[in-house]
Specification:
Number of domains: 2
Organism: Aquibium carbonis
InterPro entries: 6-PGluconate_DH-like_C_sf (IPR008927), 6PGD_dom2 (IPR013328), 6PGDH_NADP-bd (IPR006115), HIBADH-like_NADP-bd (IPR029154), HIBADH-related (IPR015815), NAD(P)-bd_dom_sf (IPR036291)
Keywords: NAD, Oxidoreductase
CATH architecture of the largest domain: 3-Layer(aba) Sandwich
Strand content: 5-15%
Largest sheet: 6 strands, parallel
Strand order of the largest sheet: 3-2-1-4-5-6
Number of helices: 14
CATH class of the largest domain: Alpha Beta
Order of helices and strands: EHEHEHEHHEHEEHEHEHHHHHH
Protein name: NAD(P)-dependent oxidoreductase
Distance between the termini: 51 Å
Shape: elongated
CATH topology of the largest domain: Rossmann fold
GO molecular function: NAD binding; NADP binding; oxidoreductase activity, acting on the CH-OH group of donors, NAD or NADP as acceptor
Structural class: alpha/beta
């Protein structure tokens, strides 16, 4: 089995790397917090590296799960990981990265003999723990896709090949834009409903057996917003980032799309008011005018 290196031991990276270890891959961890990587490695029976140079020497395939594509690029190029990897190595970026940035990074890594595929995920922490993430795979080389799949299937149960390099990251952002737009539409409807005297719980019940039904009505509002729980496990900053990526992609494609633009403004306003660490479902409170 190929030696796997995993970068980013956060809320998602922790269970994803645990599932790689469970699948039997020789695994080395690296994180900006070396102690966190060392402790998690001890928990799951993996190794950890204190430096990117040491880490690169221990890996054939690197998996990154980092906050942004910019950080992925910094780790690979500025941080020296690409220089530490042997020719023939491969990067699998599972972060929610900018798709245009991913396409720009691909040739730079190819010059160093490093293959690159993008493979962002959908499913959040519960499905990361269960190993049932949905994975969107973008690649310019079918051989790299086939090489990546056994690694990806240790963390997910469905891999969709989306097309060329960057299309996985584009699909992740566009999916989350649609989810964010649906949430915003339900929120607006309930704000109006409440001010007209409708019971929001009844309104959501009706939507869930009518044509207004969507993921947000069935799950987020019913289970987290109307209960006051606000604990879906998906941070506001992460969703706002993905919506921003979708809006930037639309601009880069020369498309003026009002729903993308307005959804981006809504979520950025909630982010400015509440901060990025709060659960994304709490955006409803900001839009209602509550703290």
């Amino acid at each position: 089995m190929e030696r796997i290196g995993f970068v980013g031991i956060g809320n998602m990276g922790r269970p994803m790397s645990a599932n790689l270890a469970k699948a039997g891959f020789p695994l080395t961890l690296y994180d900006a917090n070396p102690q966190a990587a060392k402790a998690h490695a001890a928990d799951i029976g993996a190794a950890s590296a204190a430096t990117l140079s040491e880490f690169g020497a221990a890996c054939d395939v690197v998996v990154t799960m980092l906050p942004t594509g910019r950080i992925v690029r910094e780790v690979m190029l500025d941080g020296g990981l690409a220089a530490a990897l042997a020719p023939g190595s491969m990067l699998i970026d599972m972060s929610s990265s900018d798709p245009i940035g991913s396409r720009d990074l691909g040739p730079l890594l190819a010059e160093r003999g490093i293959g690159f595929v993008d493979a962002p995920v959908s499913g959040a922490v519960p499905r990361a723990v269960a190993g049932t993430l949905t994975i969107m795979l973008g690649s310019d080389d079918p051989a790299l896709s086939e090489r990546a799949k056994p690694v990806l299937m240790a963390m997910g149960n469905r891999v969709f090949e989306t097309g060329t390099l960057g299309t996985g990251h584009a699909m992740k952002a566009l999916n989350n834009f649609v989810a964010a737009a649906g949430f915003a539409a339900v929120a607006e409807a309930l704000i109006v409903a409440g001010r007209f005297g409708l019971d929001p719980k009844v309104a959501v019940e009706i939507m869930n057996v009518s044509t207004g039904r969507n993921f947000s009505t069935e799950n987020v509002f019913a289970q987290h917003v109307l209960t006051g729980d606000f604990a879906t496990g998906f941070a506001l900053g992460l969703l706002a980032k993905d919506v921003g990526i979708a809006a930037d992609l639309a601009d880069a494609m020369g498309q003026t799309l009002p729903i993308v633009d307005e959804t981006n403004r809504w979520w950025q306003a909630a982010l400015d008011r509440l901060g990025g660490t709060i659960d994304h479902s709490a955006a409803f409170k900001a839009w209602q005018g509550e703290d």
